[in-house]
Amino acid sequence: MRRVAVIGIGDTEFGELWDESFRDIGIQAGLAAVADANISADKIDALYVGNMSAGRFIDQEHIGALIADYSGLARDHIPATRVEAAGASGGLALRQGFLAVASGLHDIVAVGGAEKMMDVSDIESAMIQSSATDQEWETILGATFPALHALIARRHMHEYGTTREQLADVAVKNHKNGSLNPKAQFQREITRETVLGSPLVSSPLRVFDCAPSSDGAAAVVLCPLEEAKKYTETPVEIIGTGQASDTLSLHHRKDICTMEATKVAAKRAFDMAHLTAKDVDLAEVHDNYTISEILAIEDLGFFKKGEGGKATEGGLTALNAEISVNTSGGLKARGDPIGATGLAQAVEIVTQLRGKADKRQVKDAEVGLAHNVGGTGATVVVHLFRRV
Amino acid sequence: MATAPRFWRENPSRYNLVGFKCNSCGRTYFPPRAICPVCHRKSVGKMEEVKLKGTGKVYSVTEVQDSLDELNLMKPYLVAIVEMDEGAKITGQVIDCDACDVTIGTPVRVSLRKLSEEGPSGIIHYGYKFVPVKEKAPEAQH
Amino acid sequence: MKVGIVSYGAYVPRYRITPEEIGKVWGVDGKSMSKGLMINCKSVPSPDEDTITIAVEAARNMMKRCEANPKDIGAIYVGSESHPYAVKPSGTIVAEAIEASPHLTVADFEFACKAGTAAIQTCMGMVGSGMVKYGVAIGADTSQGAPGDALEYSASAGGAAFLIGSEKLIATLNSTYSYTTDTPDFWRREGEMYPRHGGRFTGEPAYFKHIISGAKGLMEKTRTTPKDYTYAVFHQPNGKFPTRVAKMLGFSDVQVKTGLLAPIIGNTYSGAVPLGLSAILDEAKPGDRIFAVAYGSGAGSDAFDITVTPEMESYPRHKAPTVKELNNNLKFLDYATYAKFRGKIHLGSE
Fold first, then answer.
1. Band (B139; pLDDT cuts 50, 70, 90)
2. ipTM score
3. For position B1, what pLDDT does the model report?
4. Is C235 a catalytic residue?
5. Is C49 a catalytic residue?
6. pTM of the entire predicted model
7. Domains defined for chain C, CATH in brackets
C-alpha cells in the first residue's frame, strides 16, 4: 500500500448557520481545503462525503452527487461516494479516501463531511439522532440517545466510582479549549457549577454534559505521500487507520462501560503505524457526551479502565498536560454537525501538527489521534497522523 | 414512529419476550436472531425459540427528562437495561414506582403496557415494560 | 355437564384520587360527596395503561394460578365500555399475550357495566355445549367521567378475568339468570368522549329495578333465599347503591362486605362485579355459596349462583396478587396529574 498524506484542510464555523444551506457549507469547506492544498479542482480524482442523515434533516439523499455537482466536479464526472456510519460517518469517509489513495486506485482525493441539523425541530432532530441506535429494541422502548449514554455513565459510576464532578470536568476542559478556537460553536469558558446546575437531560447527564446540535462542514485533500511536497510545505501523513464494529444495541455489549470497538479500532491503527498509545501527543476523541470522553481515554489506552474520571479531574488531559485531549473544544464546545465531526477532528490534528494552532498549540506535537464513534459504540474509526 | 406492519412483526417478542436459545452453546438471546453470534454457522438449524420468564434485575437505570414525544405524559420516566434471569439483557422502561426505589440490582418483572400510538386515530403499540418486584410476605395458607 | 370457574385473576392500577381532591377544583364539597357515594378514592390508570393492558394483566394473573394449556382456550371475550378501539378487538391482543392464538374465537362485548358478566354467560354456553374446552371472560374498563360531573368522582379503572371450564373447578356456576329491558338511564354516543346519564332516573327504574328483578328471578329459579349464601356482590357504581339493594333484598352487611370494593377503587364499570367476585374468591372456602348480580345501563342485570368447590383448598392463589395486594403500594394524585393522565388536558397539535 502507498503512504498517504493530507495536503489541504478546510472547515466552516460550527453552530446555528441559518443563512447557509447544506450545499453552501459543503462547498465552503471543500473549496477551503482545495485552496489550502494549492491544487486545481480538475486534479481531484474522487470525492468522499461523510453524512449521517441528510435524508431526514433536509429530505435529501444522493449526497455524493449533490456535492460533486455544486463543487463543480460533476462536470468532470468524478466518482462521488456518500459514506454513512451515524456519528462516525466523517471518520469513515476519511478512511475510504485513505484506502482509495493507499491502494493506488486514485491519486488526489477530496474527503468532506457535512451536516445541516438546525432546519428541523428539536424533537425531530432528537429522533433522527437516535436512529443511530437500535430502533426496534432501544428507541421504541423509550430509550433516547442521551438516555443510553446515561445508562453507561450510571454503570461506570457504580463500577469504578467515577463521580458526577469528574464528568463535569470533561465539559469544563473542553469549553476552555473551545474558548481558544475561533471556529468553535461555544467560545465561552464554563465552571463545574455551570454543568451541575444545568437542566437534567437523563440522569445523571445534564444539558452541559451533551454536545450541541450544529450545522457545519469540514474537508481534507489527500494525495500519495511521495507527491505531497509538490503541494504543501507542511504535509501530514496518515500513518494508521483502524475501524471496528460492535453490537448495535448497548444492552448486547459484553460490558457497557467499555467500547470494545474503540479498543480494537485503536489497536488496528497503532499496529499499522507501529506505535502505541504512549506515542500520542494529542487526541481528538468523540465526546458527544462527557461520559464518552471518559470511556474514550480509557479504551484508547491513555489511562487504565476506570481511571478516566480521575485523570480528567487531575488535569492530565488538559492542553499540554500528559496528553492533550480535544484541543479543538471537542464535540462539546467546537460543535457536532454529525457527518462533519470526523473530518473536523482531522482538520484540528493537521493544524496542530503543522504548528498552526495558535493559542491552543500543543508543544512539539508530532503524533495525533482522531477517534470517531457511531451510535453508542457500534462503529469506531481511529486515525493516526504524524508530522512529516 | 413505527408503522403498523413493522411493529406487528415483532409482537411475539414484544408481548411475550420470545427470544432464542442456541442449542449449540446454550446461550439465550433476546430478541430472536437468525444465527448465534458466537457459534455462527454451527448454530444453523440449532436455534430454538424460547420464551423468557419475565423476571430479572436492573443492570443500569436512568431517569429520562428529555423524553421521546410519545412519552410526554409520563416524563420524567425511568429507562433501564435489565439483566433477565436467563442472562439476556433488555432495554425498557421501569414503571409504577418512584425513581428513588429503583437502583442497580432492583428485581423487576415484565408487564404489558402501551408503548406508543400512531397519533389519536392510529394503531396503538403494546410491549414490555418492567415493574419492581416487592418482597412478598408469606401468605397464610388456608 | 358442570360448568364453572377454573381460575381467576384481577388487576387494578396503583394510582388513586380522592373525591376531596376532585371537589376542590370544581368548588364542590368533596368530603360530603365522598360520604354520599361511599367512595374514599377511585383508581386511575397510568397514561400507558388502557382496557387492553388491564385485561392482559388480569388474564396473565389468571393463567399464573392454573396449569391449563393456553392453546386449549377456545374462546376469549373481553367486555368493556372503554375498548381502546371502536373497531379492532381488545380480545385478539389478550389472546396473543397469553399465547392462546391462533386456534380460537374472539369477540369484544359491550353492555355498559355488565359486558364482563355477559361474557361469563357466553363462556358457560360455549363450555357447557362442548364447543370449547376453556373460555376466558374478562370485564375491564378505564371509564371516564366528564370534568365536573358527578360521575367524575366514581368512574375508575380495573378488571378481572375468569377461565371457564368443566374440570378442576374451584367454583361451579350453578345457575344464571338475566333481566333485560330497554331503559335509557346512561349512555354514550359513538365518538363522544364522556357518557351522559339521566340523574335520578339511573336509580329506581334502572339500577334498582333490574338488580332486584335479576336477583329475585335467580332465587326463584334456584329456589334459594339470601340466607343460603355466604357472600353477595352487586354492581357497585358507588358504595351506597349495592349496600342499599342488599338490604332491600334481605342480604346482611357481613355477606356484602368482602365484595364491596367501590369505597377503595370507585366504579370499575365492566370490572365492578368481576373484581368484587375476585375479592370474594380470594378468601372463600369450599362449600361457600356466592350470589352475584351485575347491572349494565341500557339496561340489564346478570345474576349468578356460585358454589366454591373442595378444589379451592389446593388452588394456588398466592401465584398472583389478590385484590387486597393490588391495593397496596398506592400513589395518590392531585387533580392536575389526574387530568393529564386521563387525557383531559388539550395538548398542542403537531
1. very low
2. 0.91
3. 54
4. yes
5. no
6. 0.93
7. 4-170+322-341 (3.40.47.10), 174-312 (3.40.47.10)
